[in-house]
Give the backbone structure.
Amino acid sequence: MPEMSRYELFSAAAKGDIKGYRDRLKGDGTFQFCEQVTQLQKLNSHINVHLLTYLFGERIGAHMAQTFVTVHERNLLSFFSRMSSEYRFFILHELKNNEQLFLHCYAPEKKS
């Protein structure tokens, strides 16, 4: 009989004591990590020239947006890997702390 896979062991551990199992996962940070990955997925889906211009200004934001699309083919991990650590840290800081961040994914209204 073959050994159980890591996934099968993980799933089997939840059976019978789902509350205790969830509490252990909360304690080890799994739920928090999953939430962070979800935020990165949301950023990957919404990042565009408007958002990057909001964060970095017209010149740098436009350049970053073009690079994100043409060089990194909208792959956030690839984009982050080639970015300076200061820029990456700032984007992650904004993602974590700026509740209004995704409102800036749309073209700003023109002033009359």
Q: What stands out?
A: The chain is about 70% helix and 0% strand. The CA atoms of residues 22 and 59 lie 47 Å apart. The first helix runs from residue 6 to 14. The chain has a mean pLDDT of 91.
